[in-house]
Amino acid sequence: MLKAQYHLNKPTRESLQRGLVYARQAIEADPGYAEAYAWVSAAYSWLGLFDFVPPAEAFPKAKAAAQKALEIDDSLADAHAVLGIVRLFYEWDWSGAEQTCKQAIELNPNYAWGHAIWSDWLVVMGRLDEAIAEERLAVELDPLSAGLNARLGSKLSLRGDYDRALEQLQKALEFDPNIVFTHMALALTYSRKGMYEEGLATCQKVVSLCGSSPLSRALSSLILAMAGKTDEAQKILSELRGSRKLDSLSLILSASTCSVMGEKTEAFEFLEVAYQERVSWLVFLGAYPSFRNIRTDPRYADLLRRMGLPPH
Prior knowledge:
Blueprint: H1 2-8, H2 13-29, H3 34-49, H4 55-72, H5 77-89, H6 94-107, H7 112-124, H8 128-141, H9 146-159, H10 162-175, H11 180-192, H12 196-210, H13 214-226, H14 230-241, H15 248-260, H16 264-276, H17 298-307
Helix pairs in contact: 1-2, 2-3, 3-4, 3-5, 4-5, 5-6, 5-7, 6-7, 7-8, 8-9, 9-10, 9-11, 10-11, 11-12, 12-13, 13-14, 13-15, 15-16
């Protein structure tokens, strides 16, 4: 199981799939091994969250594996935490996610990822300061985790603590320089601080890691829009609109680009697709700074209402 744990702590497609293989092998060796089911559930939850496996396929499998783990051993904090992920990011069951996340922490107060997932729930509810405190605790419990350090940096960036966010994200890259999402958070943080050249340069690292994908192009379009280079941003956005299907993050980034450029109707068109497809990252709608331009629009309040989220 050490191999499974190692790979599941790295949010890349290849590493998560390897972790899933090792967890399944452990189940084959011992069908009553509850912890192995918990790691299968964790693998599917992260694969679904990052769109490496279609969410409609990944999250039900994550839930089934977590429930199987809890049938064998109801005290497994990590299985409860995965149920929290499913309820938060896929089922949009806010009260159920709250209950499950709290249960995971009560069962194991030293489980770093339990605090991290609870931190996500707090962000979704508009309680960013509390979320950052929980994410700091997660890093204290597992200080060498690249993922946890990156998550803390991302949340500091959302609050506008750009210098501390940059420091935290650089630390995360020291632990693992090949995680796409850390570079994405770094590029956005540079750009939010007005350091557009650094932001665009960091985009190139994203391209080098995942190619000229919709994800990397959507990120470039957003940063170009933030830098005031709207013609270039619009050109990329037009190409993305022609794509048959955008991944979850590309939808959110494209909506963000439209919002930054003041194209409110186009922003809500992307957001409506994200809503219909139940995109995981849409739950952070209230936290993303790039949506400030549309928050007074009645369509924004209506979207929050349909998701069952409090206005913020």
